[in-house]
Amino acid sequence: MTSTTDQVAHLADLAATTLLRFATAGSVDDGKSTLVGRLLHDSKSVLTDQMEAVEAVSAQRGQEAPDLALLTDGLRAEREQGITIDVAYRYFATARRRFILADTPGHVQYTRNMVTGASTADLAVVLVDARNGVIEQTRRHAAVAALLRVPHVVLAVNKMDLVGYEESVFAAIAEEFTAYASDLGVPEITAIPISALAGDNVVEPSANMDWYGGPTVLEHLETVPVSHDLTACPARFPVQYVIRPQSAEHPDYRGYAGQIASGVLRVGEAVTVLPSGRTSTIVGIDALGESVDIAWAPQSVTLRLADDIDISRGDLIAPSASAPATTQDVEATVCHVADQPLAVGARVLIKHTTRTVKAIVKEIPSRLTLDDLSQHPNPGQLVANDIGRVVVRTAEPLALDAYADSRRTGSFLLIDPADGTTLAAGMAGESFASKAETTVQADEEGWDF
What we know:
disordered N terminus, eight-stranded antiparallel beta sheet, alpha+beta
């Protein structure tokens, strides 16, 4: 436990450390919230008053030891039922790295929340109860992580204390999961035997599993290579807002504000505005009230162009030499997250970056069967938590990249136009990466966020 003063004293040191975004996933009662609580507690990232509150609630329940899961289960319904319902984000740090953690629910009906938590993650921790092994929900979470192109997956085989810390139990589970995840194209899988309740191999090495010589969970989180280099990708600038002051001071100012999704933009560079296809040249870049010659992702800037072009929110500005193609026929894999089914012929809205257009579901070619990764052809509809391929026809062209090339400009949402409900999260292009593809990307290019 640390005081507020102690944490403030470390801010200067933390500013120089790298950032890792990671998500936890697993079936019900696999111990995700306990693992997160143990990480926070044993890494001394829990404030004194937070720990006192957990100890008080645990004592009221008649528990002898503090229930560390309470550090993440913040909703009243979560505490009462002892389950995780919504994604719980936690921020903590060690001397080596800063972390943004998304503790996601384990129930099948909350798989949609796992999609939310893992969509920006560098790493996913998939928990398995050592007594139960790999189950359907484990496969579902592995499939979601693979679809979302999460570059690193940790298999945490939890509750090893309940199976006598047997190496054979761990080895069998690790072999089954690794084979399954590898077939999905997950580039890196690390298996770690743990007991979140007892603290074995979470922060400190376990004295009960001397047969295991790998890293603890925290050690792996601190040392796993992470690349956030968005500048290596072609530049993409979704326009959020058009700035026209028309004031005495700036009578002719016309700027296009937004956040650079990827790449680098320079003054003097020829650009194309999509979907219109009209071209111009960048004559100015304004950042934080000053003019600059160069800007890069993920900076928020205002671009000024040489020509007066009809540009509005939702348009995409990209270098002419590497502008994406536009299409009205979107082929993608989607994770269906709504209670109501998504059927062929459904009229939807598709939201891509800052652009939202009308669309219709033309075809649902297949639905993924998680047990054996086979495709069930022409299911007609997708229901909650289904993963499937769709073909969507849009009313206006979209400038989509393949999701494998850019997690930002290759993703989209399908929305119910009647009430604004999110129906599905989509990833343009191929479903899963091949083993060769993921090896090259992980080793040479890093990953785009």
